[in-house]
Each structure stands twice: as C-alpha cells, then as structure tokens.
Amino acid sequence: MRAAILALLVEQPRHGYEIIREIGERSGGFWKPSPGSIYPTLQMLADEGLVVSRDENGKKLFELTDEGRAAAEQQTGTPPWEHFADDVDPVEHDLRKAGATLAAAVVQVMRAGSASQQARTVDVLNEARRSLYSILGEVDEPEESEESGEAAE
C-alpha cells in the first residue's frame, strides 16, 4: 500500500478516494483498496514526515514532502498495482471489463433513459442473463495442447 501511495503522489497531490480510484483503474479493477487501508497508511506516511495534508474544500489533499519525494524516487521495479493484473488470465480481464462497461451503460439508461428505453433495457438484460446461464450449461471440450494436436496429425 505504501509503495502505491508514494508512486501516485509523485505524479500529483491527491485525495484519499482519488488514490483508491486510481489504484483500481491502474490494476484493471483487480485491486481496489478500502478506505480502511488507505487512510491509516496515509497517516503513517504523515507521521514519518513523507506526506502532508491540507484542507481543500472540506477534503484532505495529500502531497509528498521533500523526504517523501526522495523515498518515492528510491522505489524501483514494477508499480505495485501491476502485480495484481500480471497473474490474471487475459480472458478474465476482458470479462471483468465487459461487465463493468455493461454496468455503466445500465446506469446511464437508468439516469437518462425514457420509461420505454428502461423497459427495453430490462428485456435485454434478462435475455443476456439467460444466455449466460445457457453458456454455463454447455459442455466444454478440453482444449488440446500443441503437442497433442501435432501428435494427432
């Protein structure tokens, strides 16, 4: 958590919830830290003199001190949020992204759609749900490895 916060604050000062959102976006949605992990870490960094906060429109904006900038620059390697996405199957990543964009479209219909558009959206979503359960009910053929495919030829 510490490394991720320092890496983000090098870029610009941020509010706690901005840090949470940014980590979530950069990890492809696979790591979304809770406020219960972000804010204590920010407080610890402040106690160590690495960050300071100031009030901006009733919210705390956190930024690095000179010592914090030096600590952040000493970090090397892959950004922490990339570790969460590294071990994820690309199909799983695509599925998660497709689900999130579908949910965002539903929210837009709820906010801006007419009653008729909302009713049609319900029908589309119900059909999509039935189709997904139909896919789960199918028997999947095991995928052949390249070796077994070559041996069969």
CATH superfamily of the largest domain: Winged helix-like DNA-binding domain superfamily/Winged helix DNA-binding domain
Amino- and carboxy-terminal Cα gap: 51 Å
CATH class of the largest domain: Mainly Alpha
- The share of residues in helices is 55-70%
Class per helix and strand makeup? mainly alpha
Uncertain residue segments: none
Largest sheet: 3 strands, antiparallel
Overall tally of structural domains: 2
What percent of residues are in strands? 5-15%
Q: How many alpha or pi helices?
A: 8
Write down the overall geometry.
Answer: flat
- How confident is the prediction overall: mean pLDDT? 87
What is the C-alpha radius of gyration, as a whole number of Å? Answer: 22 Å
The tally of strands reads 3
CATH topology description of the largest domain: Arc Repressor Mutant, subunit A
Order of strands across the biggest sheet? Answer: 1-3-2
Written as H for each helix and E for each strand, in order along the chain, the element string is HEHHEEHHHHH
3D architecture notes:
The model has no long low-confidence stretch (mean pLDDT about 85). The chain folds into 2 domains: about 1-85, Arc Repressor Mutant, subunit A, CATH 1.10.10.10; about 90-135. It has helices at about 1-10, 15-25, 35-45, 65-75, 80-85, 90-110, 115-135, 145-150; strands spanning about 15, 50-55, 60-65. With about 150 residues, it is mainly alpha-helical.
